[in-house]
Write a structure and sequence with these properties.
The protein is mostly helical. It is built from 8 helices and 2 strands. The protein has one domain: Up-down Bundle (Growth Hormone, Chain: A). Strands 1-2 form a two-stranded antiparallel sheet.
Length: 178
């Protein structure tokens, strides 16, 4: 069988599996266990210890703003909060990709690839939820960005706080639809 035909069949199988994932984005909102399993930060932190060279990245990554003023956050429409988290994730994943491009093949590059996939998964779920909602509001405030860091551990801690902070607050409000 021709290699292109094999790849086409394989791609078709992968796409069919992905469409099932996209069919139920509210599972992420309604199932706290699904969210816990999706958070790969602890696994990445453990693997970073085994990969000492990965502690310092070849390019700086701008850290997302992780502080939440609960009163101000609660006043924003859900759609605006969702857009704010998406912008933070988008900025983070762009910088991770830039660091990947400057990395040599190593366990550090593998960690960056896994981090990029993890962030992209969150983006995908929120984008699917974003497109399902009927509201037409978007993020009015520019994305809040923190300092630059080349420390992989600091980046993981900021991602974890973004997930357990803003994202979890957002999901808590969205869970009323469950």
């Amino acid at each position: 069988m021709d290699l292109s035909k094999v790849l086409l069949v394989l791609l078709s199988v992968v796409v069919s599996e992905l469409s099932e994932v996209q069919a139920k984005p509210l599972d992420f909102v309604c199932d706290s266990e699904a969210r816990r399993v999706m958070n790969k930060v602890k696994e990445l932190e453990e693997d970073m210890v085994d990969c000492g060279a990965a502690a310092s990245l070849p390019a700086p990554i701008r850290l997302p703003c992780i502080r939440v003023h609960k009163a101000t956050w609660a006043k924003k429409p859900v759609r605006q909060r969702q857009a704010e988290v998406l912008l933070s994730l988008g900025s983070l994943v762009q910088d991770v990709r830039r660091a990947q491009a400057q990395s040599q093949p190593s366990c550090g590059l593998n960690l960056l690839e896994r981090l990029e996939r993890s962030i992209s998964n969150y983006q995908h779920v929120l984008t699917q939820l974003h497109s399902e909602q009927r509201e037409s509001e978007s993020a009015q405030d520019p994305v809040c960005l923190g300092q630059n860091s080349q420390d992989f551990g600091v980046i993981l801690r900021h991602l974890d706080r973004l997930i357990s902070g803003k994202l979890e607050l957002l999901v808590t409000d969205m869970a009323q639809a469950c």
